[in-house]
Amino acid sequence: MRRAGWLLFIVICSHSPAFSQQVNGHWYGVGIVQYPRQSNSYLSELILRQQGSRVWGEFIYYFKDSVLTVPIRGQYDKSVRTVHLNPFPVVYFQSMSASRGLYLKMEGYFKLVASKAESSLQGWLLSGAEYRYMAPDIKFKLVKSNDTLPLVKEPDIIEAPKEKRVQVFKNVPVTPPPPALIPAAPSPLKVVTAPGLVIAPLLPPTTERLAIVLTNRDRKQEVSKMLEVDNDELRLELYDNGQVDGDSISLLLNNRMLVEKSMLDIAPIKVNIKVDTSLAYNELAMYAYNLGNFPPNSALLVLWDGKVRYEIFLNSDLNKTAILRFRKKKKSPTP
After folding, report:
1. Integer angstrom CA distances of residue 238 from 121, 162, 272, 300
2. DSSP-assigned letter for residue 81
3. Domain containing residue 229
4. H or E element at residue 212
5. pLDDT tens-place string over residues 187-212
6. How far is CA 294 from CA 177, 288, 298, in A?
7. Gap between the Cα atoms of 233 and 225, Å rounded
């Protein structure tokens, strides 16, 4: 009986949640291009090998009439279950073919979601700042396959993957698109624009910041207000609405970190932003880290559109995020 008890203990441990912390394996699914009025997608496979916090392998995707295999490297943070893939070349979704296509470098950010039914990596491929107006994000859900384990069984050393598939792109030069197609990329430094506002740069993505972005996507998105504005540049002032009780928030602008983990106070958080006119609408999200002493996490947002002043009340908690949607007002056609 004692031996049977130990066998039962081993079986239970072999299925414990600790094993769900591993991301090595063969993952497959579809990436949907996040671009208005189109349905382009990438049928994809991801082969990951893991050693501690380091991951490497191949990203395989199907484009037009070609199968492309690209070596990848990255990191896995088990504390937040996120995978960060270093930039690698991906063919632009509007290219006519893979052989004559435009290749842009994109970074991968995925969150491990494990359940009894399936394990999946859910996340995004994001373009760099220089191509963010041209290359839209690609949203993925990749499900783990349990019947293709030989694909990932290789020596426990980190090395360049073997050429197994039709075509392997190594060190693909990134061909910049014609300058006329891309608006000038924002400088990483603060830029003083014509009206005199100092536009705050979006913070560069890190594992921690992308973990917040991914966590925010899992929360209910509650639109508090929709605005049409006259100016390309807006001034924002964010106050604690009521008694100062230790509310901590981040501001996300179009799913990128704008203000990172700041406490709401009687002194406002001030930031100036530029309206992205290429989007159907812009989204400003107030992500809550805590509830303070008096839930929910509430704030008063004062938005200045030139000389016009708006007051918007935002309430976020650990299950929902308050959203302000806004866009540039379209000019009426001249008679």
Report:
1. 35, 53, 11, 6
2. T
3. 191-328
4. helix 207-218
5. 443 333 334 567 777 888 777 888 88
6. 51, 13, 9
7. 18
- Is 145 found in the same domain as 123? yes
Q: Do 243 and 144 have their domain in common?
A: no
Q: Which two tokens stand for residue 74?
A: 């990255």
Task: Tell if the pTM clears 0.90, that is, is over it.
Answer: no
* Domain count for the chain: 2
Residue bearing tokens 């063919």 = 91
Based on the fold, state whether residues 159 and 251 are members of the same structural domain: no
**240 and 148 share one domain:** no
Distance CA 313, CA 324 (A): 10
CATH number at residue 35: 2.40.128.120
* 202 and 149 belong to one structural domain: no
For residue 52, give the nearest of 8, 87, 6, 21 by alpha carbon.
21
Yes or no: say if 91 and 98 are a contact pair by the CB < 8 Å rule: yes
**CB 122: neighbour CB atoms within 10 A?**
17
Residue 17 resides in a domain:
no
Rounded Cα distance, 43 and 245, in Å: 48
